[in-house]
Amino acid sequence: MSETPSLSAPAPLSRRLSIAPMMAYTTRDFRYLARLITRRTLLYTEMVVAPAVIHGDREKLLGFDAAEHPLAVQLGGSDPEQLAEAARVCADFGYDEINLNVGCPSDRVQQGKIGAVLMAEPDQVARCVEAMAAATSVPVTVKTRIGIDDQDDYAFLHRFVGHMDDAGCRSLTIHARKAILDGLSPKENRDIPPLIYERAYAIKQDFPHLEIILNGGLKDIDGMLGHLGQVDGLMVGREAYMNPWFLADVDTRVFGEPGPAPERMAVAEAFLPYLERRYAAGVHPKHVLRHALNLFQAVPGARAYRRHLSENAHKADATPRVYEEALALLGERALGYAAS
């Protein structure tokens, strides 16, 4: 057996690198797996709308494992009173940061007056931020775009950030693409509008007292590191999910932590007790194991590992044993490779 990664001491909150909130992806199960790989990276929940936090099943929506710290929750909404109440609830749950979504472009979210559509109403967003900050001592941050539709020049972004600054927000994450609210799907809005990193750089220059985090198109550590110095931190999205082992070097290369990267098989083995705890709590293995499908990407035996999980984890009688069987299919030749 490989040495088990230690989760005993949560790292301090740092936004030098974070994993973006992603619906259906950054669940508590993926976050636990990510934490086994990287101790320092800030993790985010999926977006949770404020009314659901107030009236819904809070444990189901907001529950997390203590090992996930440092951990931020992302809220969606546009009503200051609702967001303030939701912020209080999230603070009581123990989150390290509360983030307001002003970047999601989906039609469904727009209809609820949530996400990127709010960039057109900076006064309203500022009132939300002020109310949330007044309700809790937990840091309140904002995630936004560089513009929406034809409101996409630098002056528009500068005015929006100015309102956030006046409202007391001290950390903004900027997805360096505009959002096209009518005619593009959320996926297309992640790919089609061009990335303009220079807009985020300019905001940092014009608001040097604010912490500016860059998001959008970040896929490799070498390329990501080139942005630091122009901005204060980086937020990576689907690359971290589709290839979780991308995170193995970030503690040393991004945060400057001493020591070797974790071993891949050790991470996989450490995920098993977590899977067993979730199973004992009534969670079907398919919900947990879908996040581990890509853990051994490009490793010998990975195809057999993925196939076994894909074909068996969803079965009604599946147990954590299906994961042990999948790991066994990697074979001896994968063990040395999996350590890298």
Q: What brief labels describe this structure?
A:
340 residues; 17 helices; eight-stranded parallel beta sheet; alpha/beta; 43% helix; single chain
Descriptive report:
This protein is of the alpha/beta class. The chain has 17 helices and 8 strands. The chain has helices at residues 28-37, 50-55, 58-62, 80-93, 107-111, 122-135, 154-166, 186-191, 197-206, 221-225, 238-242, 250-253, 264-280, 285-289, 302-312, 321-328, 332-338, and strands at residues 17-19, 43-49, 71-76, 97-102, 140-145, 171-175, 211-215, 233-236. It has an 8-stranded parallel beta sheet. Helix 4 runs parallel beside helix 6 (122-135) and helix 6 (122-135) runs parallel beside helix 7 (154-166). It is globular. 45% of the residues are buried. The mean pLDDT is 94.
SSE string, helix = H, strand = E? EHEHHEHEHHEHEHHEHEHHHHHHH
Poorly predicted runs are: none
Instruction: Output the radius of gyration.
Output: 20 Å
Q: From the helix content, strand content and strand pairing, which structural class follows?
A: alpha/beta
Instruction: Give me the count of strands.
Output: 8
Summarize the structure.
By secondary structure, the chain is α/β, with parallel strands linked by helices.
Topology:
Blueprint: E1 17-19, H1 28-37, E2 43-49, H2 50-55, H3 58-62, E3 71-76, H4 80-93, E4 97-102, H5 107-111, H6 122-135, E5 140-145, H7 154-166, E6 171-175, H8 186-191, H9 197-206, E7 211-215, H10 221-225, E8 233-236, H11 238-242, H12 250-253, H13 264-280, H14 285-289, H15 302-312, H16 321-328, H17 332-338
Helix pairs in contact: 1-13, 4-6, 6-7, 15-16
